């Protein structure tokens, strides 16, 4: 039998030499002083060898343990070499069908149809809250209790909305895995009632005409950045989403025709959108053009004109004017406009088109391409 001392003192020669232990285990010493553990065995009448690692990374004790494990397989009439290949294949297959691999595949398939702000939130949620705990797990092996444990990590920090959004995304990934033959069921469906309840919160807004007048006067008196003030003044005149407003580009605007053409990639519904501009809106844009017209963005960032205004700029300005998050937000200009226009009897189709809301009836949406521009120009003027 071999000893550690004999192995350490073994010197290479011009040819490969074998130092035998027992029960088929030997150390192969190469001319370049490589020391390889081998287990020699016979299976179905054929002589075979199984690699058990290299010395000193694999010591004598570990090599003997590997040999004994292989001998147990032989006793069960299992070829240890083929068994190793099977395990490697299963591990590779599991890695290819891990939760992270499938989730990223699902994301890459559907993300092109989402607004950038939406897709960014989803991938951040996956990478921060799900991949560190589920990423390497074979998606077919993930159970409902395991998924619940991961979701409760998010819930424990008080992020109820993120918890429910994460559960929703997991369900989408599992259903995609089922459709592509890599899972048999969706464990997220078993978690109904297992999480603390959460209801979507509507954006805070103002609908009382007197309070709206006070808000508009506060905006006109805003003493901060000229760029932020112009964005605040334009927001109640165009009803676009905050992200669409802050990323407005001069190339999208035709001030002579008083229209703003937003490309599909900037829209939540991934459809191009036309915004008619009122006289007051055009005046605001002409004024800010003197300051930012030589750049790309209508409302550039404070630190770099090559980037749009930050996400928090308008909300921060509203906070500075005394409008706390629970009373009014940048998104509130949209619900303000919708509420007032509905109260004034404007057709719902016209209002929804102005807000760039997707048609909920997919069949109707396929045939309804009306922009309602004449009516929308009227309702723009109505709110001014």
Structural account:
- By secondary structure, this protein is an alpha+beta fold.
- The chain has 3 domains: 92 residues, Double Stranded RNA Binding Domain (2-Layer Sandwich); 93 residues, Tyrosine recombinase, N-terminal domain (DNA polymerase, domain 1), CATH 1.10.150.130; 175 residues, hpI Integrase, Chain A (Orthogonal Bundle), CATH 1.10.443.
- Helix content is 50%, strand content 10%.
- It is built from 16 helices and 7 strands.
- The strands form 2 sheets. It has a 4-stranded antiparallel sheet, with helices on one face. Strands 5-6-7 form a 3-stranded antiparallel sheet.
- Strand 1 and strand 2 form a beta hairpin.
- Helix 4 packs antiparallel against helix 5 and helix 6 packs antiparallel against helix 7.
- The longest helix is centred in the middle third of the chain and has 20 residues.
- It is elongated, with a radius of gyration of 33 Å.
- The N and C termini lie far apart (96 Å).
- About 3% of the residues have low confidence.
């Amino acid at each position: 039998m071999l000893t550690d001392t004999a192995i350490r003192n073994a010197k290479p020669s011009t040819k490969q030499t074998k130092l035998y232990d027992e029960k088929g285990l030997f150390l192969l010493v190469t001319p370049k002083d490589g020391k390889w553990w081998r287990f020699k065995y016979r299976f179905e009448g054929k002589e075979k060898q199984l690699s058990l690692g290299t010395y000193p990374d694999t010591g004598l004790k570990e090599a003997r343990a590997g040999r004994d494990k292989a001998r147990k397989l032989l006793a069960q009439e299992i070829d240890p070499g083929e068994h190793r290949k099977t395990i490697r294949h299963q591990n590779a297959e599991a890695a290819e069908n891990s939760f992270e691999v499938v989730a990223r595949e699902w994301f890459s398939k559907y993300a092109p149809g989402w607004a950038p702000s939406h897709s960014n939130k989803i991938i951040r949620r996956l990478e921060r809250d799900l991949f560190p705990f589920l990423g390497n797990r074979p998606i077919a092996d993930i159970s409902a209790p395991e998924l619940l444990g991961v979701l409760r990590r998010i819930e424990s920090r008080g992020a109820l909305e993120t918890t429910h959004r994460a559960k929703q995304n997991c369900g989408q990934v599992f259903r995609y895995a089922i459709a592509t033959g890599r899972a048999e069921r969706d464990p997220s469906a078993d978690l109904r009632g297992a999480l603390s309840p959460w209801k979507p919160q509507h954006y805070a807004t103002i609908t009382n005409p007197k309070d709206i007048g006070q808000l508009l006067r506060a905006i006109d008196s805003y003493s901060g950045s000229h760029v932020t003030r112009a964005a605040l003044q334009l927001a109640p005149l165009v009803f676009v989403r905050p992200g669409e407003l802050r990323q407005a580009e001069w190339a999208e605007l035709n001030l002579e025709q008083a229209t703003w053409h937003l490309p599909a990639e900037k829209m939540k519904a991934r459809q191009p959108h036309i915004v008619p501009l009122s006289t007051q809106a055009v005046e605001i844009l002409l004024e800010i053009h003197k300051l930012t017209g030589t750049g790309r963005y209508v409302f550039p960032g404070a630190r770099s004109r090559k980037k749009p205004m930050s996400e928090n700029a308008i909300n921060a300005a509203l906070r500075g004017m005394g409008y706390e998050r629970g009373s009014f937000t940048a998104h509130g200009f949209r619900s303000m406009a919708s509420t007032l226009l509905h109260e004034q009897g404007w057709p719902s189709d016209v209002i929804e088109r102005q807000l760039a809301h997707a048609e909920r009836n997919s069949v109707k949406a396929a045939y309804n391409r009306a922009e309602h521009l004449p009516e929308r120009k009227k309702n723009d003027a109505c709110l001014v």
